[in-house]
Amino acid sequence: MVLAFPKVEHLERLNGLRRRITKMGLSLLVVIDPAHMNYISGFDSWNYQNTQVLLVPGNDLEPVSIVRGVDAGGARQTTWLSSDNIVAYADFYSDSHTNHAMEAVAEEIQKPGWSRGRIGYEGDTYYFSLKPFSCWKMQFPRPSGWMSAFRSINSRRSRPRVRSSSFAGLEGLSTR
Question: What's the rounded mean pLDDT across residues 3-29?
Fold first, then answer.
């Protein structure tokens, strides 16, 4: 594993994000932007055309990285996550007109029961279009709540240091 920053720094970032997740009443945050995935987990990929997400639970469970099969090795090499929390989805989800990788993400959200809680997602990012959200709405017809929750910013104090960038507050409304 090769991390750009020490694991302890990634864990501090994760704890800060979890405080915001809890304050907003979310049980899970779906991180979609590759820069934000890197900020929290260290995941470093050049593959931006295929779906990749980081599921960050509000409790103390380790985040779950979901990537295309060919990217799982890279996730193991560039993150501090355990191998059990790196999930590779099948290639038939990629470049398909009938399937979408967010279906595989929805399956992972359902496994630990996170779909029963309020889920935050990055709704204002280049990497999240209407198609993935439509997949989720089909998978979770009656969720307890979806919320477009976070966007990445740099505060004035942290602009000189990329490693100090952080997630910040409420971006949209609950779909409840």
Answer: 90
pLDDT value for 142: 58
Residue 22 domain flag:
yes
Question: Do you know the residue count of the chain?
Answer: 176
135-167 pLDDT, tens digit per residue, is 777 777 655 566 666 443 223 333 334 333 333
Residue 117 domain-assigned (yes or no): yes
Within 13 Å, how many C-alpha atoms sit on residue 66's CB side? 21
d(CA 79, CA 42) in angstroms, rounded, equals 5
DSSP structure string for 29-51: EEE--HHHHHHHH----S--SS-
Q: How many domains does the chain have?
A: 1
Angle, alpha carbons 151-156-161 (nearest 5°): 85
Question: Please, which pLDDT band fits residue 97 given cuts at 50, 70 and 90?
Answer: confident
Q: Which domain holds residue 137?
A: 7-168
Q: Element (H or E) spanning 136, and its range?
A: helix 130-139
CATH number assigned to the domain comprising residue 29: 3.40.350.10
pTM (2 d.p.): 0.80
Is 121 domain-assigned? yes
Positive/negative CA dihedral, 117, 99, 148, 8: positive
